[in-house]
Amino acid sequence: MTVQRTRRGIDVSDNQKVIDWGKVKAAGVAFAVLRSVRGSGKTDYQFHNNLAGVRAQGIPFDVYKYSYGTTPEKQKTEAQQVVDLLKSCGVEDCTVWWDMEDKTLRPLGKEKLTALIKVAKVIIEAAGYEFGIYCNVDWYKNVLDPTAFSCRFWVARYPSKKEMQLEDTPNDKYKPQITQELFGWQYSSIGRVDGISTSVDLDLIYEDLEKNEAPKDYSTPHAEPTYTLYRGRLAQKVEYVKWLQWHLIKVGVLKSHTTEGKSNLDGSFGKRTEAALVAFQKAHKETYSTKEPDKKCGKKTRAALIAAVKAL
Question: What DSSP string runs through the chain?
Answer without folding.
Answer: -EEEEEEEEEEE-GGG-S--HHHHHHHT--EEEEE-B-TTSSBPTTHHHHHHHHHHHT--EEEEEE----SHHHHHHHHHHHHHHHHHTT--S-EEEEE---TTTGGG-HHHHHHHHHHHHHHHHHTT-EEEEEEEHHIIIIIS-GGG--S-EEEE--S-SS-EETT----GGGS---SS-EEEEEEEEEEE-TT-SS-EEEEEEEEEEEGGGSS-S---SSPPPSS-EETT-TT--HHHHHHHHHHHHHTTSS-SB-TTS-BS-SS---HHHHHHHHHHHHH-GGG--SSS---EE-HHHHHHHHHHHHH-
